[in-house]
């Protein structure tokens, strides 16, 4: 079964493809079906709305079901700073520089460094049908450690594991990643939907 993903973030798509251990499922970019450079407007006020807007946009563009996702980071000390605006908050597109920007927020402060990483997936089948899943992971913001993963992984510390996401093995990281947990739930829903049709 092929699932089309509506993203231009190759790191995200690669993570999803490598973390999926189901040989019956093939994740492909929407670019397989179009050369259009048009992009959806992310004007939603929640992760679910933005995931829907992406999936719906590409579903209408290519005429096939599409999986959209959105997510972000919420800092307990600055609850309104990131969240839905995570990708638009940063001055740089470079992940290492983004991580430095986050750490800079806490310089000279004793603020709580607790955070929540969230992922929401929406699969738009057609005009009337959609499926939705979500997952979260809580941790703490720390100085970069580890070389695995990408993005925020080096600065997200998991107290229960005593490591950052970047210090975990790929298989450990894939088990707890919010995006991967939401994806596994979504694939189950898609399979159930196919069985019912």
TrEMBL record:
| Annotated keywords | Hydrolase
Q: Which domain of life is it from?
A: Bacteria
The yes or no answer to whether the keyword Hydrolase is present is: yes
Family stated for the protein in its record = Belongs to the HAM1 NTPase family.
CDD domains on file = HAM1
What the entry lists under Pfam families is as follows: Ham1p_like
Please report the name of this protein according to its UniProt entry.
Ham1 family protein
Write down the InterPro entries for this protein, in alphabetical order: ITPase-like_fam, RdgB/HAM1
Q: Which GO terms describe its molecular function?
A: hydrolase activity
What lineage is this protein's organism placed in? Bacteria, Bacillati, Bacillota, Bacilli, Lactobacillales
Is Hydrolase one of the keywords? yes
